[in-house]
Amino acid sequence: xxxxxxxxxxxxxxxxxxxxxxxxxxxxxxxxxxxxxxxxxxxxxxxxxxxxxxxxxxxxxxxxxxxxxxxxxxxxxxxxxxxxxxxxxxxxxxxxxxxxxxxx
Length: 104
Description:
- There is one protein chain.
- This protein has helices at residues 25-33, 63-70, 73-82, 93-103, and strands at residues 8-13, 19-24, 39-40.
- It is of the alpha+beta class.
- Mean pLDDT is 81; it is low at 46-50.
- It folds into two domains: 8-44, no CATH class; 63-103, no CATH class.
- The protein is built from four helices and three strands; from the N terminus they run ββαβααα.
- β1 and β2 (19-24) form a beta hairpin.
- α2 crosses α4 (93-103) and α3 (73-82) runs parallel beside α4.
């Protein structure tokens, strides 16, 4: 297998989320030497290890909300109808859960 150097390289735009740009080596040298510092020969990677990942803040559902989420949309609409909530027939499941939780 013979590998030929085509003179084509990839550089990365640091002001555009490290988007790659494929250019000729001569052009790449000009880009990399530019005073703006916009271009790099390697992509900027903030955290490459899973151990460096930041944890997410997740809201915990209370037992009442969890019980409502287990019900079907038609069951939620029936409960809302019994509680005489206006517009319940046009609401989606998440909206119904929110309204029913407020009513409780």
